[in-house]
Amino acid sequence: LVMVTNCPAATSMNDRRDAKPLQATKLLRKVCVKRLAVALSAWLLGSAPAWAVLGQSVESVQSDRESLKGRLLTTPREGYSVHQISRDDGTVVKEFVSSDGKVFGVTWQGPAMPNLAQLLGTYFPQFQEAARAAVHRRAPVAVRTSELVVESGGHMRAFHGRAYLKSLMPNNLTQADVQ
Amino acid sequence: MNARNTSASATLLIGLVLIGCGSSSSTSPSSSLGGGSTGGTGTTPTVNNTQSIQVNLGPAGNAVNGLYTSVTVCVPGTSTCQTISDVLVDTGSEGLRILSSQISLALPAVVDGNGNPLGNCVTFADNSYIWGAVKTAQVEIAGETAPSVPIQIISPSGFPGAPSACNSGGVADNSVSALGANGILGIGVFRQDCGAGCTASATHLPSIYFSCPGAGCTVTSVALQNQLPNPVWLFPQDNNGVLISLPAIPDGGASSLSGSLIFGVGTQSNNSLIGVQVYTTDDLGNFSVVFNGNTYSASFLDTGSNGIFFLDSSTLGIPDCTDGNSSFYCPSSEVSYAAITNGVNGASGQIAFSIANAVSLFNTGNTAFSNLGGPNSGSVDLGLPFFFGRQVAVGIESQTSSAGTGPYWAY
By CA distance, what is A153's nearest residue in B? Predict the structure, then answer.
């Protein structure tokens, strides 16, 4: 099963629930807002980031390695570097760092989903908002805003995905390089 | 077992094709399967191994390509039972999970070595999650009964809330509206939801099983027999896999449809695998799909995915839909695609599918669509549309059948 939240999009013209009584629609939206508040609280009150935070500095890579108790392999590339953390359970996290030390992309694969709230940092609410806007969903998630791309898929025991920031990506790279 | 062997593919063609499989004009596969006694060389069923499955709006009234059935659960050793309707049939996961709001039975808790109740966490690709208690139940589907099965009761009252290691800032699928179902029947290729990776021998325990004393829940290891199993594996017979049989549907979709979930592979006359291609999976339950010369090795079949999810709009040259439907494709007219599926065992075969404009499909008001799809970077997710007009066998790991030893898919 691959699932995505099914809170209705407030402006969707295609959501059959729009045809339901106003009260029901209001209730759904209320629930969604409540969920957002809960998620934000968890994010704000959470412990220090254990994962590299998208858009932040390279220093978080080492704390990620310690948190994940994995092996770190750093590979320099032209204009950026890839910091790969891997461990025996199949978890592999790659962090893409630009020459000025900013994490512009992250990929993941493993038996369980990573903590996206920590991984995406300040961009997490954007992801959540877009994911919640989805209707008719039981699917992988693909979020594309003007600056952020998050793609997440897979199934029980085998998840994979990536996130990157267009504005921080080195000029010599394309989205195909972040994988 | 997982070594590639291209020469093996020919031997995997067992002969003909699946009974009732093939042309898009075939009638309902359930009828072409015939009764248990009409299969000729097969044995007469000793139990009813055929469960009706449906695609419809689901209990939340808004499902698209949601596959549902009913499951009866009982307090073990008693005749105190309850039938749960609208349970999602999911070959992409393992384990029976039921919303606490939909079950009133008092089931015994599964506990750890210290007597503390076990909690179970499922995360999904969208960062939503399911959290709940592990309980023991007798599980009955069709004529099959598994007397003692660890199952998950989702968000029960009086049980600790989801630990932060489970919710990760995501949304809880803890209601009918959020889940789009009353529960999930996970009948994928594995025996358990987690397996060896959650036992005491694991180097790193994922945030899946938790020990829950009153003070709060912490990640723990759990022996295989206490993990959530694929219930099929615990049936006394017909326990080596399932066969999912769904009819073909028109391009514009169907308002609802019925098919069959048949337990066992080659165990009765109604589940013989005659001449299908058998595709074994890797240790993660994946196989390879080759599309336009590129190989996507983390691909899979999943009745719990409501579309065929592959590549992206720029690569395919068709637009994503807009607003709340941006995770589906919206081509101006239907587009046909071909791909190659490759098992880990070297079995290889071509598949074909089409993608239509998702918004146009949704506007029909139908609930079942064979041509619904969307983007998915890094793998090809062959969801429910792939199953229409086919009979697909799901072979459980380490279980033997006439098709070989699981994990595999056969079609």
Answer: B125
